[in-house]
Amino acid sequence: MYLLGYDIGSSSVKASLVNAETGKCVATAFYPKKEAVIISHQPGWAEQDPFIWMGHLKMATDDVLQQVQDLEPKDIKAIGISYQMHGLVCVDKDMNVLRNSIIWCDSRAVPYGQNAFKDLGEEWCLQHLLNSPGNFTAAKLAWVKENEPKLYKRIWKIMLPGDYIAMRLTGNAYTTASGLSEGIFWDFQENAPSRELLDYFGFDPALLPQVKPSFGMHGTLTRQAAEQLGLAPGIPVTYRAGDQPNNALSLNVFNPGEIASTAGTSGVVYGVIGQVNYDPLSRVNTFAHVNHSAADPRLGVLLCINGTGILNSWIRRNVAPEGISYADMNGLAAQVPIGSEGVSILPFGNGAERMLENRETGCSIHGVNFNRHDKRHLVRAAQEGIVFSFQYGIEIMEAMGLKVDKIHAGLANMFQSRIFRDTLAGVSGATIELYDTDGSVGAAKGAGIGAGIYKDNREAFASLERLEVIFPDHQEEYRAAYEKWKQFLNL
Q1: How far is Cα 21 from Cα 453, in angstroms, rounded to an integer?
Q2: pLDDT tens track for 360-419
Q3: d(CA 376, CA 399)
Q4: Residue 10 near residue 48 (C-beta atoms within 8 A)
Q5: Which of 90, 160, 332, 433 pairs as cysteine with 98 (C-beta 3.0–4.6 A)?
Q6: Residues 24-46 pLDDT 10s
Q7: How far apart (Å, rounded) are the C-alpha atoms in residues 382 and 386?
Q8: Distance CA 14, CA 6 (A)
Q9: Dihedral angle, C-alpha 191, 403, 83, 9, nearest 10 °
């Protein structure tokens, strides 16, 4: 008995096949092998053709099916979907795509969200939507309405990327409260799509698909989709979630006080709180987590830091000795004590940072003494500066009522660096647990929960392999370095 999980990213589509009895991933694949094309007709625009996502999904499915000998398609009992958040897909009444998807990193809709935040009232937006409409899906649809009015009139349903993939698999147009919240359509006071926001933009409520729980029956694989993918018709689709809530699920982060983190090109800290709350300065985003309900709130507070792994890679290209590996860079950094002997780096050189109230401060280096410091200090200070930016965001979350005791992360990207891990544990005071998992495996296990194969998340993730635990140490030294770093941030 197997579970199939898909992760629909902007770079690739990944598929994983999980043995439901053992909980182990038995096959995984992704397509394309090079980063998927992002179409940019103008500066700040970013689009993808949703039809291409299905092509990549088919290739990844073919690959995982071939990796397991004697696999019968009927042995796959449920399908789960994770997807790139905040995108807009528009389809007509025949379920045909009307235009390319405006994806998460497209910034054309910023003025529409800013105007809505002002006109609806900042306090109202934060109390009801928990966020500014910003550059999210609702604002993207407002751009389409004003700039492509003929196309807008043909829209039957608007969808997030995962909703579209589920529709292609099942023939059903559904969404989730978690998905609508990430599009800034969900009113947390009314526990329903926001009538005020829809009225403000002039959107017909019928444009939104029917709301289903994140876990549960979203439909079954149609014969046409089954033939296309080499699967058996009738397999239920029983889970969907955006990539960050799903990453948290993949790390078994479900309850208040639990945190999931990633540190790739950009960095994410995603913490769960148990009450409807928001940051009054809108420096973090708050969405419905996968297990949220009005009766038992579970909100995911999302901090995104643009200047994370991209700073480390910049240091490797421009500062570290030519040809050096990241492992060797970590060795250089380890030769320098905590605090980099007074060198501090602000890692904000990859655009405006939401947690800094959308200021674009740039990356800056402070405290260099030409007679004391060298490349080693810069390598370490870069990693410490990235961690300190995480801690700055964690403190925003703590002010919202999130008590940070434990951080779950995959052993990937910057979490492979001991200096990075030790610094984060030391400055936050949290224990860090590292796991072997990813988004497509999490989606498969989410499908198992939704199908009732697992009774709850504890059973679904009983087999989750914890690779390492990092306990906080040298906290006074890390905190002293962090306080020094903050002084430069506030210049």
Answers
A1: 9
A2: 889 999 999 999 999 999 999 999 999 999 999 999 999 998 888 999 999 999 999 999
A3: 35
A4: yes
A5: 90
A6: 999 999 999 998 999 999 998 99
A7: 6
A8: 6
A9: 150
